[in-house]
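Case 307 in the screening queue. Each case pairs one protein sequence with one candidate compound; here the compound is 3-phosphoglyceric acid. For every case the pipeline is the same: read the inputs, emit a complex structure as tokens, and attach any notable structural observations.

Predict complex for case 307.
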Amino acid sequence: MPKVLVATEKPFAPAAVEQIKKVFDQAGYELALLEKYSDPSEFLAAAADVDAMIIRSDKATKEVLDAAKNLKVIVRAGAGYDNIDLQAATANGVVAMNTPGQNSNAVAELALGMMVFMARNQYNGKAGTELRGKKLGIHAYGHVGKLVGDITRGFGMEVFAFDPFVPKEEIEKDGVTVVTSADALYETCQYISLHIPANDKTKKSINYELLSKMPANAVLVNTARKEVIDEDGLIKLMADREDFTYISDIAPDCKDEIAEKFAGRFFFTPKKMGAQTAEANINAGIAAATQIVNFLEKGDTTFQVNK
Ligand code: 3PG
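Case 307 output:
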């Protein structure tokens, strides 16, 4: 009987765990749960005898993958898989997958919620501003970027996007104006919503030079990864420009300095919570469980990311 570990330092909603269990019960698999663990050694120990794993932002390091001697497949229930050591997975013959699109709506709704919250001065009673009529730039038009566009167009924002990997026509049919460079997007838009993955090319790519192109009262919304921001550049820019606001789903490493120097011009969630809804957990959890069964039973490698 294959054994599957769900290792989630930030647990799924109970309803999602129930649904995941149902999928594995039906397949005749054993399920082990490791939630809210505080030390990576607990993850290492739990991984030792499992055939498959579901994780969220949990770090699947080389150490974990080496310790998981029976592991055949690991699924990141979510979009970004920068937390999996893909080289180690491949070297160990482990198939790594994600579940693209399954938690996107939750992330898009959070991006919007944070934008409204900050435009209204964190609901402190003082007059704020509205989103209607403002220009929003979507940096990378994947599942989340597209949904952010759909919702913000509903708010009456003028939506632009830059994504060199998505055909122009595909973006334009959503009523979004395509620009052909990041520079053009940042020059045009008061609001930028970030949806790029964190990889060797993108880490620290959102830097002083790019951000300083943004128009007056600029707002950067980051529901992607903190690593894509060049934090030295961000601090310098926030010091130079009193009209710049930074909103992020997960605090940057320099959060204390920002809090000390730039009161009222930032908001950070205490823990990454873009995908933290029951619906997103259920969608991503069921998808991950089903992908594991389909791989172990039929060799289905759809959504493999270490090809
Ligand atoms: C993702 O990449 O899908 C999101 O960042 C969600 O991450 P989480 O599962 O840790 O909430």
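Case 307 observations:
- The longest helix spans residues 278-298.
- The longest strand covers residues 3-8.
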